[in-house]
């Protein structure tokens, strides 16, 4: 078995190709991104696997799939590339250059929030320098927290559930969630007449992601017979007319205005979630990150 005794520039090039292939989903999709042929990509991948002494991905008629070893290598590649980018940013700061990558993780379906603090801050940050490359990844709370802790993300916008000791939190806004039904649901035409006890007989969607204690208590009162991994999944089930479910008011607004959804007993069945911007505690000074927060605080003020 060949072992990688030291990491050369060529090794880093191969690791970047591997990451691009994983991000693209297969060799064919990676061709246009990398600007090289599929056969060349295959040769590079075989070379990398030989250097590491392990199989990173399966490819063939059955399709492309990352091996368990490949998933571990990919995670470490992301940490390595983030560290290299951090070094580049630190070096540029010595010469007071606003240059480098800015990686931000955001939970899904936050773009419809009326208070567009994040959008405005990113717009102003981008306008400051053409040499700032903004990378946005939409993900889950736990994934964003993990990537901030190991340096793969500079900052994240997440709901505040259980604060982690290694992260700093900056309040953005409150997100209000209400119980909704679809226009084909039996309750839609009698919203004003509904009694709390009636809701127990109807199917409700339970989120499989983290929710506040207040939300958990509300769901415990309901007849939860389905689950969804994100808010878009909850919306899908509500729109079937067979399920009730909680959604942020800003996300449900489109369907409410179109007459496809209605809130049920909003005075009783609602909860709020604090949305925060998080960063790693004790992180090295970063001109781009500092500028982003400076703009964010001024916009929010």
TrEMBL record:
Family the entry assigns: Belongs to the LysR transcriptional regulatory family.
Alphabetized UniProt keyword annotations: DNA-binding, Transcription, Transcription regulation
Species the sequence originates in: Acinetobacter rudis CIP 110305
Domain of life where this protein originates: Bacteria
Lineage: Bacteria, Pseudomonadati, Pseudomonadota, Gammaproteobacteria, Moraxellales
Stored PROSITE patterns: HTH_LYSR
Transmembrane segments annotated in the record for this chain: none
Domain HTH lysR-type: 10-67
Name of one Pfam family that matches: HTH_1
Name this polypeptide is given: HTH lysR-type domain-containing protein
One annotated GO molecular function: DNA-binding transcription factor activity
InterPro entries, A to Z: LysR_HTH_N (IPR000847), LysR_subst-bd (IPR005119), WH-like_DNA-bd_sf (IPR036388), WH_DNA-bd_sf (IPR036390)
